[in-house]
Every structure is written in C-alpha cells, then in structure tokens.
Amino acid sequence: MQPDLAAENSMADLAKKYGVTPGTMDYVSLGPGRIVKLPPPPAPVAGARRHRRTAPSALEAALLDTVHRHHLQALAMMDRENVGRHARGMVLAGYAYGLHDPACNIVANCLWYDAVFPASSSQEEELQPMFLSCKAIFRLARRSLVAFITAWAPSLSAEEAISYLSRSHGNLHRAAMLVEREGVSHAMSMDDAFRAAILAARLPSDAAREAQFWFMVNCAPTDDFLAKHGISGHPLAFGSSDLSSDSNASTVILDFVKSAVSNLALTPPTPSSSSLSRGAYRALRIKRHGFKMDQEFCLNIVNLAIEKLFSQFGEPYQIHLLCGQTLLTLPSGSYYHVNFLASREGEPNQLFFAEVRASLKGVDDVTLCCPVALSAGTGGCFACEFKGMKLIHPVQEEFNGQLDHIKDRDPKMVELFKKDPTTGLNVPLFDDYIFFETDQHPEVTAFLEINYSSMSDDQIDLSLLWFGNYLP
After folding, report:
1. What's the burial of 189, exposed, middle or buried (CB within 10 Å: 0-12/13-18/19+)?
2. φ/ψ of residue 366, rounded to 5
3. What SS3 state is found at 36?
4. Distance (Å, rounded) from C-alpha 1 to C-alpha 32?
5. Which pairing describes strands 366-371 and 333-343: parallel, antiparallel, or unpaired?
6. Residues 312, 316, 322, 323, CA torsion sign
7. Average pLDDT of 236-262?
8. What is the DSSP secondary structure assignment for residue 35, as one 8-state letter?
C-alpha cells in the first residue's frame, strides 16, 4: 500500500488543528487503501541528535532491562491505594530522567503529572486500573535517557551515551558525573538536555512538556526540603543509591512534589469544547474495552496464583498491580507468564512471577509462583524474548520457555516471526486510551481522528478485529 502524497497538506492541517507536535507522527492510515505521510519534523533542539531506530543492540537491551526494573521498583514503592490512583501519571509521564535516584525520578515525575494535570471529575471513578501492560512499562524504560546525555554532551554517539548509562545502572546523575569526570566536553547548562529528554519522552501535549521543563529546572532545593523531614543524606537528595520498597520514599516524594508544584507559576491548559467524531469515538470505546478485557483476563490468571500462594504459606496476599502477561505456545504445552505486585497484611510490596497452564481450570494449573528480586539479574526466558515481551523471571527456579525451542528451525522463518520489543511503541497503546481526555491529550485526539474519522462502523470494527492496536 503506497502513501497518498497528495493528501499530505490536508493531513498537516489536521495535525496542526489538534495541536500535534511535529515529529510525533509519521505515516497514518485514513482507512482501507489510503495511507498518507505527514511532512518531516523541524530540526531537533540544540545539541540533540536524531538516530534512525533499529532493534536494540546488546548493550542497549541490557540498559533497557535495568531501567525496566527501576520502573517496577518505583511501582513497588507505592502502597496499594497510591499505585492505582497514580497509574495514570505513571503511564503518561513516569520517566526516569532527573538528577535523583531513577526510581525516585519515576515516582516524582508520575506524581508531578497527576498534580499539575489532574483528571477531570467525570473520569475520576474510572482512572484506577489494576493493570499496566508489558508494552506500557517497557515504553517508559526506552525513552529519554539517551536523548539527555547526547544533548548535554553532543560529541558522544548514541552508543557511547548508552555505555555511560549502562555503567551507571541507568542513573542519569551518575552518568553525568562519569561524563564530567572523564573529561568529555559538555554544555554548561542542562536546560537543553532536559528539553531533549522531555521531547524524547513524548509527553501528551506541548503544555505538559513545557510544564515538565519548568518543574525540572525549579525543583532544585531538594536537599533543604528533605532536611526538614530529618532525612539529610537520603538517596533522593543526592541520586547516589537506590531506595528500597520498604522505605517511606513515596510519601516523602509526594510531599516534595506537592511543595514544588505549589511554588511554580503554571498555567493550566485551556479547556477545549471539541468532541470526537463518530468514528474516532467508536475506536476509542473499542480500545478502552480491549484494555478492560485484558485486565479482567490477567486478573483471572493472577487470582489462581494468589490461591497458590495461600496454599503454600497459609496467609492471604492482596494484589496491588498486574504488570503484564504473555501467552507462550511451546512443545510442552501453552502457558501464561505474568508479573504482579502483591503483599501480605502489613508487609511491603513484592514483585511476583507466575507461570500458569493456559487451560486455567484451577490452582493446580499454576506450575510456579514465586517472588523475584529487582536488585539483581533476572532469569532468561527465550520464549518471552522471542515474542518481544519484557517480564521479570526468577533466576533460581525452573520454568517453561528457558530452553531455545526453535534452534533447529529455518533461521529465515525464525527471523520473520521473532518480535522486536520496541514494535508498536510509536502509536498510542491501549493503556493510553484508558486515561485519554480530549482537552489534555491533543496528539491522541489527532491520532484517532486521522485514522478513524473517515471509516464506517464496519471498517473500524474490522480494522481493530484484524489488527488490534496496530494499523494496517
């Protein structure tokens, strides 16, 4: 299917109408048989480099795994009430950039977004999901850190920036100190670097990007704030060590974010009276329904795992958050692999891994359920990697998928069906639509309108039935 170049100008006008930042969309579908290409974006901010995306190198893949664990650690830092209340901020803005510990940066950015761009009252009841997909969490890990380093030290290539970040275990503060210590030339100010990181993160709107920048450059007096709480030398103040999930870090960060936000002169976005077209609204409803169905199905799997834990330890566990699942079809049978956060009464959150037979008949189908540590390396699962799904697996336990089950097959066929974990991250995910509001998310509005407004109901239904969240 070839791009309809004659429609480029009208698409540019439509993108401009909905406030889409140039560069956030490329090829878009206007329905069966019609794809157009938007004009190229303007030059990037000073010092930032644009790199053609390919499958992650081994070094980048290891870094992404590390940052992925930081995001799960950040989720584990929150209690059950807060992890549901701030799932919205996590999906839309929970990135690891900042000059503190990565997990602290993630929580702070997440809480900042919910404080500055609160959900409308009509959405409050619906905005506490129990599920975040593998893709949503991995997308957070993939964006922004490399953009910061290459903008701050323009002489570094992307691979060199990844090396510095890997040596610092994804801690931007440590990576910046390494760059300086080794005599690499860099900008005097980090303002442009923060702007590059924020742009790479693809926050939901220009208003959010500008507000995030002002939060970054105006929340410097962290040490003074923490000293008032009697925790001078806390890792949040210096970005020098990781927080444990049993600390009161999320409470401290929440107080800090509220204090910092209250001192910023932020202008909230102007409410819009626009509403979605019939086609865009229908697609939105179907995508939201898809997310809720995924959540309900994953919850059924995890409930079996919780029953298994009760039979093993004799104490009930409470589910805090479902952190993604995938279905594996192997010679030995079909299994679900799933991560979830849970805890016993009065104990801190723990991340668990469970493997459950796809028949889902009862607790006997749970072949493994165990806690997994986030501070150390994780067990490899060839089958999950082959499907492009990022889950945390145990190191010292046996589970299905550890062995290379396709080593004797045609390499060309293997390459054809193997999935890159970054596939599908350039379009809104189902998770995004749960938190979508036309006033606050103009780029998702434009995406829905551009792709679905000209379709009939049948075309929309078939498009989503055949391709799911991927466009034809």
Report:
1. exposed
2. -80, 105
3. strand
4. 9
5. unpaired
6. negative
7. 51
8. E
Percentage, residues of the chain above pLDDT 70? 69
Total residue count of the chain as it appears in this document: 472
Contact at 8 Å (CB) between 113 and 123?
A: no
Please give the share of the chain, as a percent, with pLDDT higher than 90: 24
Alpha helices (runs of H) in 153-243, residue ranges in sequence order: 158-167, 172-181, 191-201, 206-218, 222-228, 235-238
For the record, the structure tokens of 407 come out as 């080593």
Name the token pair of 17: 């109408």
Can you name the residues that pair with 356 across neighbouring β-strands?
A: 336, 366
Say which range, 15-24, 184-193, 357-366, has the weakest mean pLDDT: 15-24
CB 200 within 8 A of CB 147: yes
Which residues 6+ apart lie within 8 Å of 260 measured at CB? 112, 215, 218, 219, 225
Encode 54-93: b = buried (16+ Cβ within 10 Å), e = exposed.
Answer: eebeeebeebbbbbbbbbbbbbbbbebebbbbbbbbbbbb
Within 13 Å of residue 46, how many CA atoms lie on the same side as its CB?
Answer: 6
The residue among 169, 149, 157 whose CA lies nearest residue 239 is 169
pLDDT, tens digit, for every residue of 141-190?
888 889 999 998 999 999 999 999 999 999 888 898 899 999 999 888 88
**Residues 6 or more apart from 26 whose CB is under 8 A from it?**
37, 38, 426
Instruction: Record the tokens describing residue 10, joined without a space.
Output: 């009208």
Percentage helix, strand, coil, to 5, in the chain? 50, 10, 40
Helix or strand run (H / E) with residue 37 = strand 35-37
Rounded CA-CA distance 368/449 in Å is 44
Q: Name the phi and psi angles at 266, rounded to 5.
A: -100, 140
What pairing do the DSSP bridges indicate for beta strands 333-343 and 27-29?
A: unpaired
d(CA 232, CA 237): 8
Question: Which residue, 106, 100, 222, is CA-closest to 172?
Answer: 100
DSSP 318-387: EEEEEEEEEEEEETTEEEEEEEEEEE-TTS--EEEEEEEETT--SGGGEEEEEE--SSS--B--HHHHHT
Distance CA 453, CA 463 (A): 13
